[in-house]
Specification:
- By secondary structure, the protein is an all-alpha fold.
- The chain contains 13 helices and no strands.
- Helix 3 crosses helix 10, helix 5 runs antiparallel to helix 12 and helix 9 packs across helix 10.
């Protein structure tokens, strides 16, 4: 009887993995909008990130209070996860506040390229022919999207937001690889590492930038409601994404995350009235194709 139930449990577990990754993609495809609302209210991305992750950490800390006793038994590697994930999340928020949403997203979604390179040199995974095709296609896509002879003779990001998006995608790849390696860590531990990492990185960024950290009394009720909404979405997305990435190869997870581009394209068109040029459509399509190719680099 137990054997008969195994396929059903396996299928339900697989659906939860897929749902978790798609839910994370949905959240990250729309999360830029409430952050922009905060920015328009005079609250910088770093400060709003600091407060939203404070809220998320406090809520999760209360909910998972019984697990705090094992905090000092965690390995040192969790600190690296927190720092890299912290920069990934903060850089993404800063990029989507100031940059064109879809260009930022597409630069971020060069992440399967970095994942393939990391898997080859760090995890010593063999890169198959489709992996090399994915690398070539993503680089061609990036060239077509970024090349603008009026700005530069090199196909490089044209502003700070786009450089942040590129670095966020690199950070996302490193985060996924560390998450896949850290099978000894629970989903709760990895999620807390992400939240505390964003808190720490945001605070350091605020200290070394021109931003001043706003006192809690400065925010209006609507500001607090927006930040609480962001915090709840981020909590759910982080837990579900950590669950999904832990149980699915990083490059395959990256393909499911492409749903974020669909969400972002619709949201940016209707909420921010942004459209893409023809070279951005072509380059973006190649980057998406490369991400799908990257998923087939693994035989598992």
């Amino acid at each position: 009887m137990n054997n008969a139930n195994q396929p059903q449990h396996h299928a339900s577990g697989h659906y939860l993995v897929v749902f978790g990754l798609l839910f994370g993609a949905l959240c990250w495809g729309i999360i830029w909008y409430p952050y922009r609302i905060m920015a328009e209210a005079g609250v910088s991305g770093a400060v709003s990130s600091f407060y939203t992750y404070c809220i998320a950490t406090v809520i999760a800390g209360i909910y998972f209070a019984k697990y705090w006793r094992g905090i000092f038994n965690l390995p040192f590697s969790i600190i690296w996860l927190g720092i890299v994930a912290g920069w990934t999340n903060l850089a993404y928020v800063l990029a989507v506040i100031d940059g064109e949403v879809m260009r930022v997203m597409l630069l971020f979604y060069l992440s399967p390229l970095w994942t393939l390179i990391l898997a080859h040199f760090w995890l010593k995974e063999k890169t198959q022919l489709v992996g090399y095709i994915a690398i070539a296609v993503s680089l061609i896509g990036a060239f077509i999207m970024l090349y603008d002879p009026q700005v530069s003779s090199l196909p490089l990001p044209k502003n700070t937001a786009e450089w942040l998006a590129l670095s966020s995608g690199m950070g996302f790849s490193i985060t996924n690889v560390i998450t896949r390696q850290s099978t000894h860590l629970s989903i709760r531990a990895k999620s807390f590492a992400v939240w505390l990492g964003v808190l720490a990185v945001s605070l350091v960024f605020i200290i070394f930038s021109d931003n001043a950290i706003s006192a809690p009394s400065v925010f209006s009720l609507s500001n607090w409601l927006v930040m609480i909404l962001i915090a709840i979405l981020l909590m759910a997305a982080t837990l579900l994404v950590q669950y999904g990435v832990t149980r699915m190869p990083a490059t395959r997870a990256s393909v499911l995350f492409l749903f974020e581009l669909v969400v972002a394209a619709i949201a940016s068109y209707y909420l921010a009235h942004e459209t893409m040029a023809i070279n951005e459509w072509i380059g973006g399509s190649l980057i998406i194709a490369a991400a799908i190719f990257a998923a087939f680099n693994h035989g598992d």
